[in-house]
Design brief:
Blueprint (H helix, E strand, L loop, with lengths): L12 E2 L3 E2 L7 H11 L3 E4 L8 E2 L9 H7 L4 E8 L2 E7 L9 E2 L6 H12 L25 H5 L18 H7 L13 H4 L19 H15 L3 H12 L5 E4 L12 E3 L1 H12 L13 H9 L5 E2 L5 E3 L2 E3 L4 E5 L3 E6 L4 E7 L9 H20 L7 E2 L1
Parallel strand pairs: 4-6
Antiparallel strand pairs: 1-2, 3-8, 4-16, 5-6, 5-15, 7-9, 8-9, 10-11, 11-12, 12-13, 13-14, 14-15
Length: about 400
């Protein structure tokens, strides 16, 4: 007897645009189940857990933008930590604190940490062109500097238009196992990247060209520079931020982690990761999986990057306005970290429009996070009440 799967479990392309899990009516379930339904993946657990304590500040519920977000149909969850205290945590009726959720492009910040450590060690010169490290890379990236790739300043034929059924992003999604598209050959990510050509496109200095492919190309370069496979470097980062639950990572067929958007975790564990990011990769037990000076330099030299869709600097796979660092994720995911104050604001959402992106919605999320941080920075610290 054949038992039909729910459409939300399907990876096959429907309507010529998206995998069925990513269609608007399935996306909410899709984000929470992608870690089980992707074609290839890995899971890992840290040997210990960073403890968090609950010290809810109910005045945060009175912030207008918090009320807007937590009552919005696209809302999945919001968690805020200050130091080791959870000061706000709220979920939609169909979501829970233990739910694993896709963090999408927030995953890119792992490559900020990996590249930062190698740069500090003198192993990665970001001024060199991509073809210095990957000899057979295609013309789309060959002559671009690693720095340009990390700042989303490369123009080529690869398109990240989520509303375009012909965008090359679709081929990348097939490569890392988020869709099954019988109209194209199934390749690994590192088989796909060299097929990206320039297409006669020229980059304008400082112009933003958001391409998820950039992240995994730099991850590949990092692997070349240090001689350690990306999978092991990801495991080191997971050990360093010491999550409570298993962390799931989408990979391609060869087992290479998809760091352009392939991490899945709980909202509390995303806050734990945010604290690690804010410390520039200094881990819970003192290990260093990044570079504090590189993260600080990224904030201070943000004018050297490009302008992201949030209207702030995009530099070294971080979005920053000089006070906070973080990253937006497809479908309304958001991580914002205030390193100076050890404040982390993490959001899970499920945007249900056709493309899964809404700049106005994301900008309102950022404004909400800034309102939360402003309140917490001005508020005197208090002791925690009970431990998680």
């Amino acid at each position: 007897m054949t038992i039909p799967l729910s459409p939300a479990h399907h990876l096959h392309v429907r309507g010529g645009k998206k995998g069925e899990w990513d269609l608007p009516h399935n996306r909410r379930s899709g984000f929470k189940n992608l870690y089980k339904n992707h074609r290839y993946g890995m899971s890992c657990r840290a040997p210990q857990m960073v403890p968090l304590s609950v010290n809810i500040d109910f005045k945060l519920h009175d912030i207008d933008t918090v009320r807007w977000y937590s009552s919005h149909p696209f809302f999945d969850g919001l968690c805020v930590t200050k130091g080791s205290d959870v000061v706000f945590e709220h979920y939609a009726s169909d979501c829970h604190a233990d739910d694993i959720h896709s963090i999408q492009s927030i995953s890119k910040t792992l490559v900020h940490l990996i590249a930062g450590k190698l740069h500090e060690q003198g192993k990665l010169d970001t001024s060199l062109p991509v073809n210095h490290f990957i000899k057979h890379i295609g013309s789309g990236y060959a002559n671009a500097s690693v720095q340009q790739v990390m700042d989303m300043a490369v123009a080529n034929e690869y398109s990240e238009d989520y509303y375009d059924a012909t965008a090359m992003l679709n081929q990348l999604e097939d490569a890392h196992g988020w869709r099954i598209d019988s109209s194209i050959p199934h390749r690994t990510m590192r088989e796909f990247f060299p097929t990206i050509h320039n297409g006669g496109v020229s980059a304008v200095p400082g112009e933003h060209h958001y391409k998820t492919a950039n992240t995994d190309i730099v991850a590949w370069i990092c692997e070349v520079c240090c001689g350690i496979d990306i999978r092991s470097l990801v495991l080191d980062i997971v050990d360093a931020f010491a999550p409570e639950h298993s962390i799931f990572v989408s990979t391609d067929r060869s087992g290479v982690p998809f760091l352009g958007g392939g991490l899945h975790m709980t909202l509390r564990d995303l806050c734990r990761y945010g604290r690690l990011l804010g410390r520039g990769g200094q881990g819970y037990t003192g290990q260093h999986v990044g570079s504090t000076s590189f993260t600080q330099q990224t904030m201070h030299s943000r004018v050297d990057g490009t302008q992201s869709h949030l209207g702030v600097s995009y530099h070294n796979f971080l979005e920053t306005n000089g006070r906070w660092i973080g990253h937006l994720g497809y479908g309304g995911q958001l991580l914002m970290v205030y390193p100076e104050h050890d404040i982390v604001i993490a959001c899970f959402s499920s945007l249900l429009d056709d493309g899964g992106l809404d700049p106005a919605f994301s900008q309102r999320q950022v404004a909400m996070a800034e309102h939360i941080a402003d309140y917490l920075i001005k508020k005197p610290s208090q002791k925690s009440s009970y431990a998680l």
